[in-house]
Amino acid sequence: MSNTSNAGGNRPRYITPEGERALREELQYLWKTKRPEVTQAVREAAALGDRSENAEYIYGKKQLREIDRRVRFLSKRLEEVTVVDRLPDDQEKVFFGAWVTIEEESGEEQEYRLVGADEFDLTRRYLSINSPMARALIGKRLDDEVSVRTPEGWKTVVISAIRYQSPDRLG
């Protein structure tokens, strides 16, 4: 699948099926629920008279601009992304969508999933594929030693596990 409308460089913008679903759900919510609610509130505030000193009207118009900006962004982004909905042929290597467990020099282990930039969320242990750590892990195998530059300096980790979730189990 080619991606010719990629304004942010020549790298495809990958996303997991659940990441694409989350973007579509947000777009649907903003367009079908939130925007009509705010539009109604602005309409009601406008009916109260002088708009120049009407805080509800001014705030509502600002909310509509923010919603419209986000709707435009999400619509464009959904056209640009490439959904990765199949497992890699070689599941012994780290690729997009993998859960990778790394062991730090201290012996502490951390598990991360390599996801698209739109899905990045460290609280869920989702690491952007564009991050230095993810870029260092791509293509590596179990027990490979990986060095990555961090704000604190160079860090060396060892890959202690690689796993993939089957797309039919996502949900």
From TrEMBL:
Start and end residues of each Transcription elongation factor GreA/GreB C-terminal domain: 91-164
Coiled coil ranges: none
Ranges where the Transcription elongation factor GreA/GreB N-terminal domain occurs: 14-83
Keywords carried by this UniProt record: DNA-binding, Elongation factor, Protein biosynthesis, Transcription, Transcription regulation
Protein name: Transcription elongation factor GreB
Family of this protein: Belongs to the GreA/GreB family. GreB subfamily.
Known role: Necessary for efficient RNA polymerase transcription elongation past template-encoded arresting sites. The arresting sites in DNA have the property of trapping a certain fraction of elongating RNA polymerases that pass through, resulting in locked ternary complexes. Cleavage of the nascent transcript by cleavage factors such as GreA or GreB allows the resumption of elongation from the new 3'terminus. GreB releases sequences of up to 9 nucleotides in length.
InterPro entries: GreA/GreB_C_sf, TF_GreA/GreB_CS, Tscrpt_elong_fac_GreA/B, Tscrpt_elong_fac_GreA/B_C, Tscrpt_elong_fac_GreA/B_fam, Tscrpt_elong_fac_GreA/B_N, Tscrpt_elong_fac_GreA/B_N_sf, Tscrpt_elong_fac_GreB
Pfam families xrefs: GreA_GreB, GreA_GreB_N
Alphabetical list of Gene3D superfamilies matching this protein: Transcription elongation factor, GreA/GreB, C-terminal domain, Transcription elongation factor, GreA/GreB, N-terminal domain
GO molecular function, one term: translation elongation factor activity
